[in-house]
Specification:
107 residues, Alpha-Beta Plaits, two-stranded antiparallel ribbon, binds iron/sulfur cluster, binds FE3-S4 cluster
């Protein structure tokens, strides 16, 4: 089992999550962050840190967010690790809580 980053991170990328991960399993894309499921140790520390509430335990992943499990696994293989907090994307506050942002995901 692992934790999964979902829709509400897209176009926001607040990066508070990366600071608390003890095993550095967050990988950064242009406008989204993913968790490497092979590295995640299920400590749950990241979940409450996300201002966008975008992180779920795999077991609690809503039905509408199931696609993000594979997206996290796939992108973790190609995007670089991020371990230090950085500024959120400029329009993060505008995009926060907008629904169905998957169409905006940048590769
Ligand atoms: Fe890292 Fe723990 Fe979050 Fe997994 S659950 S991504 S190990 S902080
Ligand atoms: Fe994304 Fe939340 Fe982390 S918005 S970058 S999962 S703190």
């Amino acid at each position: 089992m692992a934790f999964v980053v979902t829709d509400n991170c897209i176009q926001c990328k607040f990066t508070d999550c990366v600071e608390v991960c003890p095993v550095d399993c967050f990988h950064e894309g242009p406008n989204f962050m993913v968790i490497d499921p092979e590295e995640c140790i299920d400590c749950a520390l990241c979940e409450p840190e996300c201002p966008a509430n975008a992180i779920f335990s795999e077991d609690d992943l809503p039905e509408t967010m199931q696609a993000f499990k594979q997206i996290n696994a796939d992108k973790a293989k190609v995007w670089p690790v991020l371990t230090q907090h950085k500024a959120a994307l400029p329009e993060a506050k505008t995009w926060q809580d907008k629904p169905d942002k998957l169409i905006y995901l940048e590769e």
